[in-house]
Amino acid sequence: MKTNAKKCGLLREGFRQCQMIGICALVLILLLVILQAISGYIDYSNENSLYTAQAYQMNLGALLAIPMTFFMTLWLFRFLNNRAASDFYHALPHKRLFLYESFIGAIILWILIWVVGSMLVTTLLCCMQPNLQLLYNTILPYTLSVIFMCLLTASGTLLVMGITGTGFTNVVLSLVLLFIPRFCVAYFQMLLQNYLPFFLNRSNTGFFSNSSNLLFSLLASIFDFSNNFTLSSVLTPTWKPLVYTLLLSLCYFGIGGFFFQRRRSEAAGQSAPSKYLQHCYRILITMIPYLFFTSVLTLEIKLGNAVDDAFLYVIIYVPIVLLYFVYELITTRKWKNLLTAVPGLGIVVLLNVGILFGVNLAYNQILSNRPDAYEIESISIYQGNDYDSDFYFTFSAYAGM
User: Fold this and answer.
1) What distance in Å separates the CA atoms of residue 134 and residue 120, rounded to the nearest whole number?
2) Are residues 56 and 235 in contact, defined by beta-carbon separation less than 8 angstroms?
3) Helix, strand and coil in the chain, % to nearest 5
4) Within 13 Å of residue 380, how many CA atoms lie on the same side as its CB?
5) How many CB atoms lie within 10 A of CB 102?
6) Directed axis angle between helix 239-262 and helix 214-222, to 10°?
7) pTM of the entire structure?
8) pLDDT tens digits, residue range 228-254?
9) 175 closest CA partner among 145, 191, 152, 208
10) 324: number of Cβ within 10 Å
């Protein structure tokens, strides 16, 4: 009983600390919902036909809960970035896990208020429009998808906050964790398909596919990253993306809780809890742009086009080195640390060489795949836009490769 009372007390305290962000977000979300309902009423009021709409089409404002969850998590756990505040919270007569779980509970409570509350208002407003029929079977998938994306945002942010100690590194590395791994995989797959049109990517249908990560899929659909991601499929998903996103969130919460318990109070205010992690973060940030450009360079070399664009690649590669030192300077604010960061460039070079060999190996592996007749289950015909298309090929051309 005492344990539950302590948790409730910490949960109320976390909920109270988030009131300003929570109320402002709720007002904005409901305002967007009302404006969207008014717009729909104006569009459909003069029509005699009955129109149907999915839940997300009438409640896009609920998506605002995702960035607001990010800011709320940073705000509620901001004591991890301040030495005095970190000492205070670590000195409380509670287990660290109690504090972690209670503050997470406060964030989840605000998420439910935002998403469920906006969905109830949307349903009520749609019932008041005689020419508009809301598809009620899309309400639950949309509500769950937004809630789970919020949970993934909060869990990923908390994981990173457990191994960083400044606001800048919190934000940068959280975005890296949440989006960059999936973006790299999707980019590499798309790159191979562009240079090898006969390469059929079958990895977009499994449980661990890119489309199973709802948060990444939402961003990809907004920016039209690929035809595999559509707003409708993301916001009215099947059970697989929902389960995957929820499991990934729980995994991040668990790892974040482990780091939260092990974290030293002295890590507050430091970009990384150790110099080794600082090296890792700096190399990671630098390798993100290098990964994209080196992959393209490898395929251009295979096609014999790299010589023509050699000067362009030099212009691109050299400034990225500056990013390596700029990150170090921003996070540590010490000029002398730039000298200690120089040896890490050797690891960056080795990683770029590894990317060259890796992309080259994947390219050759795809080209060397010659299935026997009995192994062919189906045939897909690729049709370019025209004969001048860079990716148009004939059977004879393919056979001659």
Assistant:
1) 12
2) yes
3) 75, 0, 25
4) 8
5) 20
6) 110
7) 0.86
8) 677 888 888 889 999 999 999 999 999
9) 152
10) 20
